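Methods — Computational structure assignment.
A single polypeptide chain was analysed. Its primary sequence is given first, followed by the predicted tertiary structure written as structure tokens.
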Amino acid sequence: MQRIEIDHDFSLPVDRVYSYLSEHENLGPLFGAKVARVRDGDTERNGAGSVRQLRIGLLPPFEETVTNAVPNERIDYYISKGSPLRNHRGSMRFSSTGTGSHLNYVIEFGAVVPGLDRIVKPVLEGNIRKGLKSVDRLA
């Protein structure tokens, strides 16, 4: 199993950062993928039960399903369909810093093919770190 943990501070308040990162279509730059909404959530557009499809290059698409969304606090999700990664779980936790906001983002995953998770980890982590730098400008 691999684990990525990223802590990032934003100048924007929590509600703006959460609103931006909870919107599936805004996550493409974060993951280095084309992201499309498959289904809205059970009670909220981006809430629990919402599903997004990700396409990375020529690889087959896969889907992520949001399992828990507490506005301005957290978003939890997992890969629910079509990926060689296994037991993939992601959690975004948001908090106020007084003048801005903080994100603690943890992703854990393994892979069907031995060693694939070790290859995916630095690429995914690099894309996320790079993508988070643009959130203050885009949100």
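Note: Residues 2-138 form a domain with the Alpha-D-Glucose-1,6-Bisphosphate; Chain A, domain 4 fold (CATH 3.30.530.20).
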